[in-house]
Design a protein that fits this description.
Elements: E1 4-5, E2 8-9, E3 13-16, E4 22-26, E5 31-38, E6 42-45, H1 60-78, E7 83-87, H2 92-101, E8 108-112, H3 114-128, E9 132-134, E10 137-139, H4 142-151
Parallel strand pairs: 6-7, 7-8
Antiparallel strand pairs: 1-2, 3-4, 4-5, 5-6, 9-10
Helix pairs in contact: 1-2
């Protein structure tokens, strides 16, 4: 039996991707791919709850519904409350309001930023030297990586 809800009959459909590292949140006519990780608790990254697969931005109401559904899904499938990761550079106040509403269903809140994410990515790439290729560019030294890093957003 389908349930009539905010988005229509029988939706949303929510499932873990293979390997269990991300979640697909599917409505009748669009999907959202939500970043998750597991390290000492399931983490949901709110900065991935931003655009539908068709490129349209989620409304505040859609974000609110999605985070609530996602928290319930993780609790149901993992039998544990998730950790919510808020990017301070993307809708911090909105997400804090939403998480306050869900506080009894979550384990904790963590914060990240675009700079912190950039630093993690850079350090990961450092670990691959001297055998690193990004977008067809061979990077063999830290100097090569630094030069790439400075110009990467212009490409």
């Amino acid at each position: 039996m389908s349930i009539l809800n905010f988005f229509g009959l029988g939706y949303p459909k929510i499932k873990y991707e293979p390997r269990g590292e991300n979640i697909t949140y599917k409505l009748e006519d669009r999907e959202l791919f939500v970043a998750t990780t597991y390290h000492d608790g399931e983490r949901i990254y709110t900065d991935s709850i931003e655009k539908w697969d068709n490129g349209r931005l989620l409304t505040h109401e859609e974000k609110s519904k999605a985070i609530s559904d996602l928290v319930d899904f993780v609790r149901r499938t993992k039998s544990k409350n998730p950790i919510i990761v808020i990017n301070v550079d993307k809708d911090k106040q909105l997400w804090e309001r939403e998480i306050e509403r869900l506080k009894i269903k979550i384990k904790s809140i963590e914060y990240t930023s675009e700079k912190e994410k950039d630093d993690v990515e850079y350090n990961m790439y450092l670990g691959f030297l001297p055998m690193l290729t990004i977008g067809g560019y061979e990077i063999k030294t830290k100097e090569d990586l630094d030069n790439y890093w400075i110009t990467r957003k212009k490409r």
